[in-house]
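Quick one:
INPUT:
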């Protein structure tokens, strides 16, 4: 029986950091997170700081959640960096022995340089957008999704969620789906059919590429594996450094706190997404499909 673990990249800030903390509080699974901007030790310390855990996940030594979180250095614009992180994960969870598999994988890198017209597009900035937003997830697919998602014929061992806490502070325990899921962060601006305003050339192109890569990976998984799928996800406009310059342009009801955004992500991707009903497509925070 193959035991599950979780992958989140990057996790040093924004949605990735909040998601890692949420998963530490709602599962008992080992988690591999990555960081580029800060050292792994600093990132791990920040992720564990003031973490409110249900009694079922708290030990007298408080080592349970500390030991099951591993933070690795990873730069999505450097394939050697991604390969080294993949090898480190393989040392922790050897996929070739059939004892471990990645059950939830989250590829979350993103940069944004808005351009209102073609003349505002700068080559180097556009290239960086494509490297981070499109090639970064592709390399994560190569070195993590293809390497660690369960192989065809694998029998998956899924632990029961931790017991609910009487405290109102920790979120509800998370029940894992019977299939593994690889999620890549996309955006509604990826949609060609929904593009009625124009602008944001490089960002739109990079996220449209994410959706195409997600579909292609999912077809590969469907042929090779019985218990795995890939999908893309649009979280809405979330109050992180990534979107700070645009907060004043978004209606308050459509501007989400990071904790709420993570709750919606987990609900749509983990709780709602079915193997046949959701695979290979892009979904938003409401659980609705983003048209291609």
């Amino acid at each position: 029986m193959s035991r599950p673990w979780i992958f989140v990249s990057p996790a040093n800030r924004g949605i990735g950091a909040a998601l890692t903390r949420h998963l530490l509080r709602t599962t008992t699974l080992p988690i591999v997170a990555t960081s580029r901007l800060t050292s792994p030790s600093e990132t791990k310390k920040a992720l564990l700081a003031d973490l409110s855990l249900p009694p079922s996940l708290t030990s007298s030594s408080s080592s349970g959640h500390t030991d099951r979180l591993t933070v690795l250095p990873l730069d999505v614009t450097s394939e050697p960096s991604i390969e080294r992180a993949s090898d480190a994960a393989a040392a922790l969870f050897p996929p070739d022995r059939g004892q471990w598999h990645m059950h939830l994988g989250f590829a979350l890198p993103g940069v944004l340089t808005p351009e209102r017209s073609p003349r505002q597009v700068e080559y180097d900035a556009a290239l960086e957008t494509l490297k981070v937003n499109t090639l970064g997830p592709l390399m994560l697919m190569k070195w993590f999704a293809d390497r660690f998602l369960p192989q065809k014929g694998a029998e998956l061992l899924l632990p029961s969620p931790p017991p609910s806490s009487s405290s109102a502070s920790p979120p509800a325990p998370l029940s894992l789906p019977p299939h593994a899921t690889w999620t890549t962060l996309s955006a509604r601006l990826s949609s060609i059919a929904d593009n009625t305003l124009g602008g944001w050339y490089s960002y739109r192109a990079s996220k449209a590429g994410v959706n195409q890569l997600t579909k292609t990976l999912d077809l590969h998984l469907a042929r090779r594996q019985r218990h795995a799928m890939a999908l893309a996800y649009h979280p809405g406009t979330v109050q992180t450094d990534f979107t700070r310059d645009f907060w004043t342009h978004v209606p308050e009801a459509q501007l989400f706190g990071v904790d709420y955004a993570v709750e919606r992500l987990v609900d749509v991707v983990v709780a709602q997404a079915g193997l046949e009903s959701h695979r290979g497509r892009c979904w938003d925070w409401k659980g609705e499909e983003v048209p291609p």
